[in-house]
Design goal:
There is one protein chain. This protein is an alpha/beta fold. The longest helix has 26 residues, at 132-157. The protein is built from 13 helices and nine strands. α1 (6-16) crosses α2 (25-35), α1 crosses α4 and α8 crosses α13.
Length: 302
């Protein structure tokens, strides 16, 4: 048989985790291959890039799409677990789960239809009105969204100590703090009620930025937390701070930082993942495609 597409793979993925226990993706992949009775050759067949097998790539995308739709969760890095919505999908789709079915869930629809130029436009199925350039841009946007989601899951699974290190590494990658040695000397972890670290704003150390890092998983950071951080800045006679969390900030928290004189930047989980991708922290280039065009100068006969 041929290797199944990622939509056909979705239900067998849920079938593999239907007992409700977390299961390693490597084991799920193996059980999906067994379900479709793939030969050794089919299991080993790789994408043109040669960096990943077709079946692993398709199982991975099935996981991403179903997580966006709430059919499964990622309790720890490299594991997945079915949700009540996933069990419902198995009942409602006894043969095959499709993207059309997942679109019944607003959170998936927002993810699937997002593009840089049309944030909430809903394209028709099998839409071919886009130019190849637009299709490429759409595909790249989808890949970046998926990467950000996976990156955030990995961040949440890390320890609080690693998260604090990640925050400093991000500031360095963005050009703050000078060298790693300088940052190491300038960063200290204290118990003064709200300051997790200090880093130079510039290589010369003419000013400093105070850091607060909270690796919350599902807690929304509210105004009291941000006020406490602002109070800690007052104790240090500091004017600038960055509060980074892996979760989200409440509307009151964001409104508060706009009302005070001190400059406090709030970075939530989604923004954190986006910045890490932008500044190549914790990510690496998977493959590169060269998009070429006609060199008009070459054909100029004058």
């Amino acid at each position: 048989m041929t290797i199944p597409d990622f939509q056909t793979v979705m239900r067998p993925v849920l079938l593999s985790i239907q007992d409700g226990q977390p299961k390693a993706m490597a084991r799920v992949l193996e059980e999906v291959c067994d379900h479709f009775q793939l030969t050794d050759e089919e299991r080993a067949r790789r994408l043109p890039s040669g960096k990943q097998t077709y079946i692993k790539n398709r199982v991975g995308w099935a996981r991403t799409y179903m997580k966006k739709a709430g059919l499964l969760t990622i309790p720890q890095r490299g594991q997945i677990r079915i949700t009540d919505r996933g069990r419902q999908a198995m009942e409602e789709c006894p043969e095959r789960i499709t993207v059309r079915y997942l679109k019944k869930y607003p959170e998936f629809l927002e993810f699937h239809t997002h593009t840089p130029t049309q944030p909430k436009a809903e394209p028709a199925d099998n839409d071919v009105s886009d130019t190849p350039d637009e299709q490429l841009q759409r595909a790249h946007s989808s890949l970046m969204d998926s990467l950000a989601d996976e990156l955030l899951d990995t961040i949440i699974a890390a320890t609080p100590a690693f998260f604090e290190k990640l925050v400093v590494d991000l500031m360095l990658a963005m050009g703050y703090g000078g060298s790693r040695e300088d940052a190491g000397q300038a960063t200290r972890y204290t118990s003064d009620g709200g300051i997790d670290g200090i880093i130079k704003e510039d290589p010369l150390g003419l000013d400093v930025i105070y850091l607060q890092a909270k690796r919350y998983t599902d807690k929304v950071v509210g105004r009291p937390d941000v006020q406490a951080f602002a109070g800690a800045l007052d104790m240090q006679r500091a004017r600038k701070g960055v509060f980074i969390t892996a979760s989200k900030f409440s509307g009151d928290a964001r409104q508060y930082v706009g009302m005070i004189e001190k400059k406090i930047v709030l970075i939530d989980g989604q923004e954190l993942a986006r910045l890490m991708i932008q500044y190549n922290l914790g990510v690496a280039t998977k493959e590169t495609f060269d998009v070429k065009h006609i060199d008009s100068d070459y054909f100029n006969e004058e």
